[in-house]
Sequence to fold (370 residues):
Amino acid sequence: MKIQHAKLYKVALPLIEPFRTSYGVLDTKTFLLLELTDELGTVGYGELDAFLVPDYTEETLDTAAHIIEFLLLPKLKKTLLKEPEDIRTLFSWVKGNEMAKAAIDSACYDLFAKRRGISLAELLRAKQKKIPVGVSIGIQNSEEELISSVRNYVAEGYTRVKIKIKPHADLSFLQKVREEFPDLLLMADANSAYTTEQIPLLKQIDQLNLAMIEQPFSVRDFVNHAQLQKQIHTPVCLDENIRSLEDTIQAYKLQSAKAINLKIARVGGLTEAIMIAKFCDQVGMLVWCGGMLEAGIGRAFNIALAARSEFHFPGDISATKRYFKHDIIKQDFELNNGEIEVPQGLGIGVEIDRENLQRFTIEEQDIVLD
Ligand code: OSB
Ligand code: MG
Fold:
């Protein structure tokens, strides 16, 4: 397969409600849609899910677009691709920049599946037809608002709830939820908002029988996470830290975490993601599929990955209506008994809604490769 043409759409989709993390608030999901066309005219899609500012990881949409245009696509243009795994090898000379790589890697997986006449799920050997999913709730203004939000999601059928925390919006918020929902699969995500000085507080959170606590300490810290894991029963889960299989092995060897939030974008694409999932499965670390408030294309990739056998724990993959009123794909992902169906059509199995894409596109760029 040879890639002949690339197009980038910068899309700004309004979120139904603002999403607050310890980093800040997001009321619009801005992302890049990457459209790749091969020599046969087959079209594949990838979603570039970096943010506008480097507050989650180092990349931004603009830095990633730059890397794609000036480094990755020129390399791709000279290459005959035989397998989707070739992308990972081809780009390994570029350090970091995982989200830029993941966008191209994803679009190539979609293309390979379409060329072979199969679904992405089949290409990934992902056999589950439905996957259990959870919801990630942003930081709320008060405990009352949080409780009411949890009630609504539980009523909709979500069986696993993740709550974003930060200093002063943590222990009492989680306690209130735990009191009302003693058996709920509940977890907290700190997005690196704590330091070792707050270990006494984290030990109190440890009393709440959470399924895990995600990324309490800083992005790249393995040592303090290991110190914490020794002192609490609640599994520590790493998100921001994990950019590769190497990072995962490091977390395992140092015992920095018992669980990994796996995001395709954060680890440079599906090939690396599957390597990480297999490793976790072999060594008994819990691996689950995280989210980045993806629009429809990105969500389709997450669902296919989470349909593989290594994934048992419900991911941060919610129904479309939890995020957006309008999306850039025609289908809506819907929740049925706490589960989402895995698309079985060709490739990613979802279709671009051209009208909505046009409506929410704020910039577009054509890149001819031949
Ligand atoms: O830390 O997992 C995170 C969203 C954006 C950036 C980071 C994170 C998140 C979420 C949302 O938690 C998960 C979702 O897409 O529903
Ligand atoms: Mg997280």
In short: The two ends are 13 Å apart (CA to CA). Residues 111 and 163 are 36 Å apart (CA to CA).
